[in-house]
Amino acid sequence: MATRTILKNWNKFYEIFSHRLSGSHGRGITLTFLGAGVTTGIVLYNVSNSKVIAAQTTLNIKNFMAQPITSIDKLKQNRDDMKTKMELLILKIQADFCKQLESLEENSSHFKVDRWTRAEGGGGITCVLQDGTVFEKAGVNISVVSGFLPPGAIQQMKARGKQMDEGSLPFFAAGVSAVIHPRNPMVPTIHFNYRYFEIQNNDGSTQWWFGGGTDLTPYYLDENDAKHFHGTLKKACDKHNPSYYEKFKKWCDDYFYIYHRGERRGIGGIFFDDLDTPSQNEAYLFVKSCAEAVIPSYIPLIKKHKNDGYGYAERQWQLLRRGRYVEFNLIYDRGTKFGLYTPGARYESILMSLPLSAKWEYMHEPKPNSKEAKLTEVLKNPRDWLNST
Predict the structure, then answer these.
(1) How far apart are alpha carbons 156 and 13 in whole angstroms?
(2) Among the options 19, 25, 181, 191, which is catalytic?
(3) Torsion angle, alpha carbons of 285, 287, 292, 294, to 10
(4) What are the tens digits of pLDDT across the range 179-195?
(5) Residues 6 or more apart from 118 whose CB is under 8 A from it?
(6) Is 0.85 surpassed by the pTM of this model?
(7) Is 191 in the active site?
């Protein structure tokens, strides 16, 4: 009789089923392995007492927010290519995160899903939830774009040490980016972005690298929240390299720095760029672990604080801090600049990170020894959240 089961590894699979299929009565057995959007059916059958293994791969896209940007046929044909693996990963990360956020909305607010294409190559899926009970604005965007890098983008990359040929070069970029602006000032804002980039040189060789990170921007400091957030990210880093967290935590503190204010945007997290070691697949698995750590690092904080009480003064402070968020994104953020430099840029998606409401007040200073001053002190002097007493 036919048997259907799911096995965790190939060795166990072969050991069990090679015996059952050794006779002339062997029948077809189908097993399904679910991964990041990929379903693989492995069919075993017997022909003249010789075991035959046929692998058929299909895409399971029903749980994504929209149809993939790359055609299904192309994804199937190139399932081992890093471009395919990254696109399927970010589609899954986007869908999982959006569904988690929607589940917290008391008025059944849903994301508006906007799938767009780019004449120069590729496109994206922008998901935005606005005016919810819990989230004033939440944006979760993926982009899968290709084409030719313009001189401005090439010069920006060379400025940070990339060795690139002259002229316009073919490129591919895929990434997921999210910024969540909660309504309650006691719930922090989160930003995360994970991306993969390829450039083809004039000699046909390919340069590739990964980048990204996750960081938290609270309006009122809860030290237990900070420890939970950083601890979750450290666990994701430690799976791959015990030196990553400390290195990428410092990089995050240094990157999200508002120079003209002399303060960080938030309490940090991790940030890295130009990651091309130890191998392409190992770098991908690290990025995957970091992206999958977003939900456990952040969703518990929303549940903890979404019903906290607050008043007019807390709301005004939240709006002032959002103004600083806007300043960093428009003046310093490298991703924003790259997006605006890229031909066919979709400005609605690039600027989705901006809040619905923000405020600028002339020469504002928090009162000494206030909760607002406590946060400001941490923004000026980053702390080691996991080893501090």
Answers:
(1) 50
(2) 191
(3) 160
(4) 999 999 999 999 999 99
(5) 124, 145, 147, 344, 346
(6) no
(7) yes
